[in-house]
Amino acid sequence: MSYQLLSEPIRKFIRNKRWENLRPIQAAAISRIIETDNNYVLASRTSSGKTEAAFLPILSKVDFNRPGVQILYISPLIALINDQFFRIEELCENLEISVTKWHGEAKKSLKNQLLKNPNGVLLITPESIEAMFVNAPYNVSSLLGNLHYIVIDEIHSFLGVDRGLQLMSLLSRIQRLNKERIITIGLSATIGDENYYSAKLLIGDVDRTKILIDRTKKDTEVSFKYFKSESVELPLSLLKELYKETSVSKALIFPNSRGRVEEIAVKLLKISSKVGGHRNYFAHHSSVDKEIRESIERFAKEKEHFNFCITCTSTLELGIDIGTIDKVVQVDSTHSVASLVQRVGRSGRREGEMSLLSLYATNEWSLLQSLACWKLYQEDFLEPIKIIQRPYDILFHQMLSIVKQLSGCSKKELNDHLRSNPTFEHISSEDIDDLINQSIKSDYLESFERELIIGVTGEFIVNSREFYSVFSTELNFKVTHSGKVIGNIPYSPQVKKDENILLAASIWKIKDVDIKGAKIIVVPAKDGKKPKFFGRTGSIHKRVRAEMLRILMNSEGYEYLNVESHDEIDKLRADFNGFNIKDFEYDRPVIEKEGKLEVYTFTGSEINNTIVFLFKCFNCELHIDDSKSLIEVPETLDRFGEVLAQVIKLTQDEIHDYIIDELKANEGLIGFYKWGKYLPLEYQAYLLREKMFDFEGVFDLLTKINLCENEI
DNA sequence: GACCTGCTGCGGGCTG
Description:
By secondary structure, this protein is of the alpha/beta class. It contains 26 helices and 25 strands. Strands 3-4-2-5-6-1-7 form a seven-stranded parallel sheet, sandwiched between helices. A six-stranded parallel sheet has the order 8-13-12-9-11-10, sandwiched between helices. A five-stranded mixed sheet has the order 17-16-20-19-18, with no helix packed on it. Helix 7 crosses helix 16 (392-406). The protein binds one DNA strand through helix 7.
């Protein structure tokens, strides 16, 4: 049925491929895309044929005799563009149209060829679109001024993040160059029913965007294993089991850090060479050289008859093609259910095959969290995507980009331009005018004969290579003490003179930071002050923590837990047995001993961090162990209650003032958001409040919390 | 106790 709707060259392609039938998402997408001009989000699991679901009908429908590029394909990764290039070129083989790659590593000559004769399909990254607007605005209109379709791949990777807001703004700017409405198709992993609204927002037209979901999941066989870790290194028993489990398959192992990746890859190879196993053990993460990473991906994809084991970070979470994987192992819990979904999806890619998943844990809290994530995965829960109503930082970035693009415009033109962009629809015209005026004061913009142009300071920003992206990258700094190297740490806003850092199990005070040489000089810290909590730790959603509490408070058994894992869960259950928890939402265990308190909040990381911040405003320093969702209070229960009573009475204005104080005291704080530092303080405070904290969550919990002491 | 993502234009030197 759907097949009949396709054009003859595309039908020929399908016949040549000898496809017996179309996948469900393909059949559904073909009729809708051909028969309507709605935008669509096509959501289904990895390797279900989404690319073809979008391109078969689009290629059937588009008139490639029109001037200009007709289909713009946008991808979050260069590697994905390179993969998709071959697939799309193959789809186009009976069509005689050109497919062009356009990203930082693509050939300049091919880009120039397209500029001379804009046509066909263009594959690009958001950053390259940004660069085009800034550096060659004339080219943008001739290339992208007559588009028929935009396809956004892995659209879920843009949701809830700054890069997605940048893309949303760029989509609106591209539409402005076109007379006719562009139809947009987003390709997505399953992201949870409430989150599809975010995808509609990103596409920019909520009413005309429809969602097509293929909910079929692969059957997954799961097993939990427990290996108590007493030191910083992984226990030998874990490694031996890991070896046994992966030595005769194509396996992916996901520990949660680069250091762990290296440790596992090296040690498994060592075991394998001792017992005469294969030598195909690889480590894949962002610090591994790009060419090495590509050769690993090629090995996995092309060497069909070899077994291998790739230990990796989230670099292999997205849809890069690495062929068939038999088994996925997660070492210690993922930080989110969404991440677990992506990783499970990597396994059992052959039609009708089971996914095999092993979840290892090295401590009891990680085991509990892992179990909670698995239960929520089964219930189809996925973390909700956070929507920032007023992204002032992205507005500032886009404001400079637009002024450069237009090479000058009036204040009113700029305001209208930004106001008509749905990315900024909740930011008032007054706020935009204020930001324009403040930017003139700071020399980011210049007002010249009623025309706005980029100011002297602004030129440095716009002409920098760093301008095109909205995220900052970590730069590793070498940490040394009297000539001796202690280690490498990523550069963060907190790396500055007199700050304390933790490294190699010691506390150090920073004496000097050499930005150019990427070096940090430290001395041992005498005051023993711990580093501030503001850092980037994994952020666990409150629903995961609630599930952890629920598991602890019931006595159900799980057949997929091995004996050691089940014993460990039962031990934890025994520890919490004495607390009379009835209401899982607001009853929380508390332990009082020697004038100190331990409160198990069983809530999200963001809420925990916000509680610590609010109590600090009343000179009550809390210490937090987020992996256990445990807050340690150096006070008695009575005193804690007094401060808590004050905290929940705080007004919005008072909180605002406290955030301003914090921003003044800790200038590096706003540096977590690349474009935030160019904003006036009031706007920075708004961003911090929305992005780093969850005051609503705190007030909900603290106004109703019922602290339960152990009754045994 | 984190992880990941991208990048212009120009000039100089070298190769075929």
